[in-house]
Structure formats: structure tokens, C-alpha cells
Design goal:
Elements: E1 2-4, E2 10-12, H1 13-18, H2 36-44, E3 46-48, E4 59-61, H3 62-71, E5 77-78, E6 89-90, H4 92-101, E7 106-109, E8 112-120, E9 128-137, E10 140-151, E11 154-163, H5 167-170, E12 173-181, E13 184-190, E14 193-194, H6 199-204, E15 209-212, H7 213-220, E16 226-240, E17 247-251
Parallel strand pairs: 7-9, 11-14
Antiparallel strand pairs: 1-2, 3-4, 5-6, 8-16, 9-10, 10-11, 11-15, 12-13, 12-16, 16-17
Length: about 250
């Protein structure tokens, strides 16, 4: 919406709050007088997406541009590192290098994993998060997380996978996590969440393998004074069956 002061100076409704309802030209108080002529001019404009330098080729009418940019699939991603609010943003190749070089996150090529988590004094860990590994699988990147937190008053551990890309593309993949010992095991299968979702949002939705602390310590064996968990898993791509139209798994070795 385009507004103007009593002297005819114009500015947009977004900027009105930034100038504290005062015209930046004449300092008169701004009302809600719309400049319809300028709005008509704005409606006729077609502008490219501001993320064109990242690959977006779309062109939009002026008033649709901001709405598109808020959801543009080429918009930069926030750093997915868990455990700190890292302010870095960028495309996927940049963030993979950033995670490796600045956060010292391990990177591996392959779609299967086998991790062992060892923590002394696990009863003292109420809120902790670890981004353990970034996997390069099927030409895409995935982040494996492991967290300790409370559900109500119950201490739990949780493992989950995030996809370094958009939500729609994440739906093409599935993953499994498994933990166990002494002839018992827990399993989880699901779809990785996009890194568009903050890791806390994923954690708080309980979208992953959740292990109660007493079960985790049972799996650890011994005197239950040390956490020793082995978590294995794999990632696969759901492919369309050309004959029956049914999704069949394509498992990367």
C-alpha cells in the first residue's frame, strides 16, 4: 500500500512504521491517505526475484514479489548447526563447507552409518545437542543429530535426520535409525525434515527416534553410570515404479 502525507509526499506502508509515523521529507504526521495513482503504477511493474543471483529466474508483479521471496526455493538457508544460534546463511555448498571448516562437523560419503555415543555422568545431561555428521548421499546432504532433553519430567535422548534442501525435495527420501543391545532394539523410520525447520522445531515435534534414559542405560550395559549407545541407520530414495505407480526404495550402499 502506498501512502502520502498532507503535503503529498509518498512512502509505502512498510516504511511508515520505520519512520515512526512521521513523513521523512516534511516531518508532518502521516495518516492513512492512500496514493492510488502510485499504487496503479506499482501494480504495472514486473520485477525479478531478489534471489536471481542464486538461480531464481522468476519475474513477478510488484505486490507479488515479496510474497514469493518469503517462500522462494532459492532463498538462502540458515546454518543448520545445532547447539548454537549461528548467524551464517548461504546456499547448500557454502553451508557444507562452513559446517566442515568452522564447526568441525565430520562429513562422509555414503548412505549408511554406525555411530557410538559415549557420555559420562549421563544423569547430569538434561539439555544437550550434538550435530554428529553430514552425509553426502544420492548427490544431496543430510545432517544427523542427537539430543538430550526432557519430555515433561522424563529425560530422553533423540536421534533424527535433516535434509539440506527444501521440504518438497526432502519427501523423496526416507531413513531409518536403530539402537539396541542384549537382544533388544528400538527402530525408527521416517522422512528427513528440511533444514528450513529449526532443529528445535524438529525436536519439539518428537519427529525422530526417542529413547528413554532408563532404556538407553539398559542398552549401555554395565553399572548404568555411563551412556554407551550404538546407533545405526541408512538413507534411501523413494523411486516411482513405472509399472504400478508405487514407490519402491532405492537403497544406496
Amino acid at each position: 500500500m502506498q501512502l502520502m502525507c498532507q503535503n503529498g509526499h509518498t512512502l509505502c506502508s512498510t516504511c511508515k512504521t520505520r519512520v515512526h509515523n512521521r513523513c521523512p521529507t516534511c516531518r508532518q504526521e502521516l495518516g492513512d491517505i492512500r496514493c492510488l495513482a502510485l499504487e496503479k503504477v506499482a501494480e504495472s511493474l514486473e520485477l525479478p526475484c531478489k534471489y536471481g543471483f542464486l538461480g531464481c529466474t522468476e519475474i513477478f508483479p510488484y505486490y507479488s514479489k515479496l510474497e514469493h521471496e518469503a517462500q522462494c526455493s532459492f532463498r538462502p538457508y540458515n546454518c543448520p548447526y545445532a547447539g548454537s544460534e549461528c548467524p551464517v546463511v548461504g546456499d547448500i555448498p557454502f553451508l557444507v563447507a562452513h559446517l566442515r571448516d568452522d564447526h568441525k562437523v565430520d562429513t562422509h560419503v555414503g548412505c549408511t552409518f554406525n555411530h557410538r555415543y559415549v557420555k559420562s555422568n549421563p544423569r547430569e545431561v538434561e539439555n544437550a545437542t550434538w550435530m554428529l555428521t553430514v552425509f553426502n548421499c544420492f548427490g544431496h546432504y543430510f545432517c544427523l543429530h542427537f539430543e538430550a532433553f526432557l519430555i515433561g519430567i522424563a529425560p530422553v535422548y533423540m536421534g533424527f535426520l535433516r535434509f539440506m534442501g527444501d521440504e518438497i525435495e526432502a519427501q523423496n527420501f526416507s531413513y531409518s535409525l536403530e539402537v539396541g543391545a542384549n537382544g533388544r532394539k528400538l527402530m525408527w523410520e521416517g522422512t528427513p525434515r528440511s533444514i528450513r525447520d529449526n532443529h528445535r522445531k524438529v525436536r519439539d515435534s518428537h519427529d525422530g527416534l526417542i529413547i528413554q534414559r532408563n532404556i538407553a542405560l539398559f542398552f549401555s550395559g554395565g553399572d548404568r553410570k555411563e551412556l554407551k549407545l550404538r546407533v545405526t541407520g541408512r538413507i534411501w530414495k523413494e523411486q516411482q515404479n513405472p509399472d504400478g505407480g508405487v514407490c519402491i526404495p532405492n537403497i544406496c550402499s
